Amino acid sequence: MNSADLASGPCPLGRAAGILGDRWTLLIMRNATLGATRFEQFRTGLGIADNILSNRLGKLVDAGILTKEPYEDGNRIRSHYRITQAGVALRPVLEALAAWGHTYANPAEPTTAVRIVHLPCGLPTADGSHCDVCDTEITNEDAAWVMPWVSEEPIPLATAAATAAPDGN
């Protein structure tokens, strides 16, 4: 069974794996969640080959997780890749995988875990979905990640591009 078969099968976990299970896809989504929108930003940030990146971005666009929007760059037409509501909804999955990786996948050198910060109060959260201090739900609009191996500064998360619902409405 290949990823296309999984993506259309009856099992919801299989369908998710069919879309997200290719090598690099979750890291592309991590970078999109952190605001990357241009092909070059993904390529530079990940060190990924152009053909693989193009393939993965195409699959994410086809799945409705990213949108592809053309823009002019001098005499060339290029594309922005913007996260959709379906992509924003992956945030808890990415955060759970990061927590799992911190606990169970040993790095070459010790690192500190990703922290999720509630921007209005500036404090880290226990689970990333609710702020215990403000007693509010945390959305992408008011959340940031601190990835200590990159920077101690919180990186605000991308918000969803305006898109139609999966049923076309």
UniProtKB/TrEMBL annotation:
Report whether Iron shows up as a keyword of the record: no
Concerning InterPro entries, the annotation shows: HTH_HxlR (IPR002577), WH-like_DNA-bd_sf (IPR036388), WH_DNA-bd_sf (IPR036390)
Q: Report the domain of life of the source organism.
A: Bacteria
- Domain HTH hxlR-type, which positions? 11-109
Pfam family membership, one: HxlR
Q: Does the keyword DNA-binding apply?
A: yes
Note the PROSITE patterns from the entry: HTH_HXLR
- Note the Gene3D superfamilies from the entry: Winged helix-like DNA-binding domain superfamily/Winged helix DNA-binding domain
Which key words are in the record? DNA-binding, Transcription, Transcription regulation
The protein's name: Winged helix-turn-helix transcriptional regulator
To which species is this protein native? Streptomyces fildesensis
